[in-house]
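Marked as duplicate of an earlier ticket. Keeping the data here for the record.
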Amino acid sequence: MNPSGTLTLEKLDSKIDSLAEKMDAKFDLVMEKMDAKFDFIMKTMDARFAVVDEKFESIIELMMAGFESVYTRFDRVDQEIRDVKTRVGRLEDSMEEVQYSLAVLTKAEEKDAEATINHEGRIQRLEKINKIKAIPPTHLIDIQI
């Protein structure tokens, strides 16, 4: 300020320059501190993310092992199903053989029963003609002539 209490343009420029230099110095100081903080934060985050990555890798390994176990069980179940299908096929073949044998035996039994009935009928006629006392055929009680 001059003696009259006014500020000259030169002094004002000088004060503005001085304030700008101080502001620049403080800004630089703030930026240095922010850079240091930012570097610290980035290093901390990198370290934390590395830990998270390791945990994810171990989780993925566990999951893969679990999936492998499930796949192994599915393979066993598939094999057991194939074995059951094979056994069922063999049983079906055996059942067909049994059915065939039963049909053959049934036809043979029917022929034998028919022959027996025919013989009994002939015997009864002969007994009647010759007036021979008939002996009841106990083995044919349920068969109708």
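See parent ticket for discussion. Residues 9-140 form one domain.
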